[in-house]
Every structure is written in structure tokens, then in C-alpha cells.
Amino acid sequence: MPVAKPESSDSRVIAHVDMDCFYVQVEQRKQPQLRGLPTAVVQYNEWKGGALIAVSYEARKFGVKRSMRGEEAKEVCPQVQLVQVPVARGKADLSGYRNAGSEDGNDVKENVRKWIHRHNADHRDKLLACGILIVAELRMQVLKETEFTCSAGIAHNKMLAKLASGMNKPAQQTVVPFSSVKGLLDTLPIRKMKQLGGKLGISLQMDMGVNTVGDLLQFPEEKLQERYGINTGTWLWNIARGISGEEVEGRLLPKSHGSGKTFPGPRALKTVPAVQHWLNQLCEELSERLCSDLDQNKRIAHTLTLHARAYKSSDSDSQKKFPSKSCPLRYGTAKIQEDAFNLFQAGLREYIGFYGGKTQGSHCSGWGITSLSVSASKIVPIPSGTCSIAKYFQGQSTSHFSSMQSSDNLNTEATLSLPSGSECYSEVNLSEPKIDFPKEESWIKDTVPDLDLQEQKDLSSPLSEKTQDGFIQEDISPLLLSGCLEQNRSKQQRDLTKDESQFKSEYKERKGKRLKDKGTYSIIELFKSYNPNPSGSFLSHEYNRTVGGTDASSSSYSRDEEEGRREAWGYNIDEIDPSVMEELPTEIQDEIKAWMQPHKRRPNNMVKRSCTISHYFSPSKKS
DNA sequence: ACGGATTCAACG
DNA sequence: TCGTTGAAT
């Protein structure tokens, strides 16, 4: 019973949540008729049908890939639905996706944080199991509130969580228990690891003959250090062993904003006025976003940076790079435009060198700009006591560039954005019931499983059946959360999946895939193996009930599904069986008590949710 | 004519 | 600090 406890220092529970082909989902939500169809988002359309920047999983089956041109996509998948990114100011405008990514940011963040306030579990896997449940619930909530599905990985560190989140996409979550780490990494192609997808990974392959993470194990730490430096070397040595101390940063807002555009080949900008025109466009967008940030988040950026890429048509070191330049950032569109232009000119002078001048008379400037971007960084919160923002800015020093005043247009729009991309890490401090997450944190990552009815039956069936299916023997593979509820599917999704036969075939497909995995565990199995009292476990009761309910009325759960969910997942804190507590390690008991005390009386559903987890460790569920 | 635009971290 | 480079998506 007492599972031989392998020693590994890191018993954090970390989850990585990753939205599935996010831009596509945004478009599909906007145009529901696109749901279920092979879909891709392209930006621009003039040249070869535009560039794909997001591809739905249906389209991926046809071989459509990111970084294809629209025309290529049509070749491999004629039915593919191509949705264009909106254009504003002559450039791709990503604000729609940015905004979709941040919508509800507050609620989500608050909810997630609170959910995770409590914890219990006694062993590594139980800790992970706790994470599984939280993440499953989280994903469900995300789907319900945003209509977006996501995938997740749960593991003991960030690296593994991230890895796992991509293993079963879309709309599923994957757990990596400690015991499966070695087996997982052993055959994993080295380039799949985060940070090894580029030059370093190639060097590892070419120079060291390392093709899998497992191959790395042979090299002594010192060897790696002398080849790649002290930092990278030790880092490599550790990740080969599944060790990563990287911490989760609880950041919700971006650290910078940028606006840029490329001008490939023939479109390169060859005159200063042309550059100025585009700089003005870029600065206008940037200024708008800065104002939104100021408005919504009460913070200001302090540094403006200009980047450019250029070529020199005639003459020597065409290798030379256009230098990036930065200066203090002054708010106001015109000021930003002016400063950016000055930065550009400074960079250009430097780039051209000394005889750059005007060797080619009036027509050819001798240079061309192939990309331009302006960005704002060093964004800090406004001093809280600042009553008048206008006054605050007047107090700002002027930039060192001579500049005129000008009409500041402090626009106010909403653009609260999450960190970049469509993934999100959340970390929580378990030992502290408060807002900040310190040491013992949990990483939560989350995705929505996409299971059909049959799969649900699997879930509700006796635990042993799953075991007999034979895919959970070895302990060397990641756990797949194979049980989640019909609730996880949104109304729209359900309507789309009316075709029952397609449904089943997909199910088979997935099941087959799962069998190929070295081992997958159902969530119930996981609990069973560590639960002293396997019999009528609380969990299976709950799943049975839930499945039964949704099965019959597999419509949407618009009305009292809210109630249904609570019934299934939420329990009042007072219902916690004291015997459950006694089973837990004392530290965890203490945490729970500490958490319960101050909140005891809050009739908040948050409280209920929190208690749900405790119940999962209950040996005997009280009806 | 590079998949474009964006963000971030590490490093010198 | 600034600027560059690499990486990921």
C-alpha cells in the first residue's frame, strides 16, 4: 500500500493550459457555421493567398500546416475555409484575438486563484490528481464562459506540464506522474523540448549525436557545461532527468506592446517619406494600445524602441544589421511618431555608415527597409495616488529629442490583454490562503476533453474494466484524463456533433490512439490505486450521476445545468467528513484548516468548490 | 519573396 | 542600460 516513495524534491503540481488553435476558435465563435469544418486563419491574401497563422485540427488532418500559403492550403485541402485577419492601417490587425484572449481576464483569474486555494493529498500522485480535477473543472468553466476549448498538461514542473499539454490535443488534458517521467523522456525527440526547438537542439543532434532526451543521459554534467556553458550545460543535464526548477510567474498582463510590419522583397521601403508613413501607422496603433493599457490597467510604458531590417543593395557588408534604437517614451500619438522617426533616422545614419550618402543620384537610395516595428516596454503601474493622469504626464520630462508639443490623443479603448499567445500558466500557493503565490505552488493547466457518450460509460463503469482494457499496466507513460463529462462540451459543440456515426468513429480513433500509448489511466483508476477504500468511491458516484443526467438530456445545460454542475462538483464545506481529514498528511490538514477558518461562513460557491477536492479523497462517500 | 507579427528571455 | 540574438507561437 505505501507506495515506495521515490525521492524527487519537486512536489509542486504544475498545470499548463493551452488554447487550441486559438485564432481559429475566435473566428469560429464569430461564425459558428465554421465549427467542425477545416478552417484556417490567414493574414493578407494578395500574395499566394496569404500566410496561415492558425489551423484547425480538422484542417490539420488534410496536411494543412501553419506557415503554408493560402493557395497551398487549398491544394491539399480544397474545402478549407480561409478566414482573413482584418487589416487596419494597411497592416494585419490582431486586436480581435488579443481582446478575445483577455476577455474575462479578471473573472477567470479570480476564479482560478480561488479554486486553487485549497489543497489536499498525501502523495505525489494524489497531488497531481488534485490538479487533474481542478484543471478539468477549470477547462469546463473556460468552455462555458468563452466557448473556447483548450488542452492541458499537469505535472510536477513547468517543463513537463508544457510538454504534456501538447500531447493530446485538442480538448484533452494529460498528466505526467513522477513514475512516468523517465519513460516519457527516454524516446522523446530532443527538438520537442521547449528551448530545444532551435539552434541549440540542432547542435545537440549534429555535434553530440543526441536525438532523444534520453540520449542526453550519457553525458556527464561537466561535459555539457564545457560544451554549452555553465548555465545551459547544467540546464541540459537536469532536463534530461525531468528536473526543472523554473518557477511559475503569476503575471496576467503583457510586459510590452509592439506593432510591426514586414515589407518583403519588392515591397521594401526605399525612401524616407515612405518609412515615415509606415512608422506613423505603426505608432498610431501602438499609441492606441498604450492608451488602452493606461486606461484599463493604470500603467505606463517608459521606453520606446524601434527595430528595423534593411538591406543595402549596392556595395559591401550587406551583412550589416540595422541597429535598434530606443528612447524615453512620451505619450501622445504625434510624440511617439516623432520620436520613432528620430530613432529611425539615427539608426539609418549608423546603418549607412559614412559614405552612405547619395551615391545613386535621386532614384535609388541604396538601401531598403524590409521590416519595421515599434514597441513599448518597461511598463509600470501608475503611482496609486495619482489623481489626475493629465497632470501626471505634464510632469513628465520631455524626451531628449527636440520635439514639438502636439495634440495628445489619449484615447480610451479597452485592450486588456493576457500575456502573449493562447496559453496560460497559473500558479498557486497552497500554503498561503491569500492572493500571492509563493513557494509551494500548483501549476494548473487546462483543456476540455472531448468525449462521447460511450466514453462516458467507460467512465462510469467499474474501475476494473478500464484496467482490463490493458492500457494502464505500465507506469511509464503519461496519464490521460480519459474521463470528463459531457458537460465539457458546449452547446454549440453538441449541436455540431449531431452526426452520431461520425461521433463514434472519432471515438474509436481516439481509443485506438490511446491504446498505442504505453499506458493511460483513467482518473478513477488513479484515485483507486491510492485510496484505501476503493469501493463505492465518491468519484464514481459522482460520475455516474452526472453522466446519467447529461446522457438523457444531452441538450445544452443552459438553465439549471448550473445547478447540475454544482451538484456534481460542489459540496458544502460542512459536509466534509472528518475522517477524510484524518487521512491526510498533517501539513495538508493544517493547510485546509487554515484555509477553512477565515472563510467558514462565506456562502460563496467558491467555498463549495474548494471543498470538492477534499471529497475526492474521502474513503467513503456519504450520500 | 523569409510564414508575419508579436512577445519574451538570455546574453554581451 | 542598451542592444542583439534566439526562441516560441
Automatic annotation (TrEMBL):
Residue ranges occupied by any UmuC domain in the UniProt entry: 14-197
Keywords per UniProt: DNA damage, DNA repair, Magnesium, Metal-binding, Nucleotidyltransferase, Nucleus, Transferase
GO biological process terms on file: DNA repair; error-prone translesion synthesis; response to UV
Region (Disordered): 488-511, 548-571
Source organism, top-level taxon: Eukaryota
Major subcellular site: nucleus
Keyword hit for DNA repair: yes
Name of one Pfam family that matches: IMS
EC number(s) on file: 2.7.7.7
Cofactor(s) this protein cannot do without: Mg(2+); Mn(2+)
The keyword DNA repair belongs to this UniProt entry's keyword annotation: yes
Gene Ontology MF terms in the entry: damaged DNA binding; DNA-directed DNA polymerase activity; metal ion binding
Compartments (UniProt record): Nucleus
UniProt-listed InterPro entries: DNA/RNA_pol_sf, DNA_pol_Y-fam_lit_finger_sf, DNA_pol_Y-fam_little_finger, DNA_polymerase_eta, Rev_trsase/Diguanyl_cyclase, UmuC
SUPFAM superfamilies documented for this protein: DNA/RNA polymerases, Lesion bypass DNA polymerase (Y-family), little finger domain
A Gene Ontology cellular-component term: site of double-strand break
Composition-biased stretches (Basic and acidic residues): 488-509, 558-568
Catalytic activity as recorded in UniProt: DNA(n) + a 2'-deoxyribonucleoside 5'-triphosphate = DNA(n+1) + diphosphate
PANTHER family: DNA POLYMERASE ETA
Family: Belongs to the DNA polymerase type-Y family.
Protein name (database record): DNA polymerase eta
Lineage, top ranks: Eukaryota, Viridiplantae, Streptophyta, Embryophyta, Tracheophyta
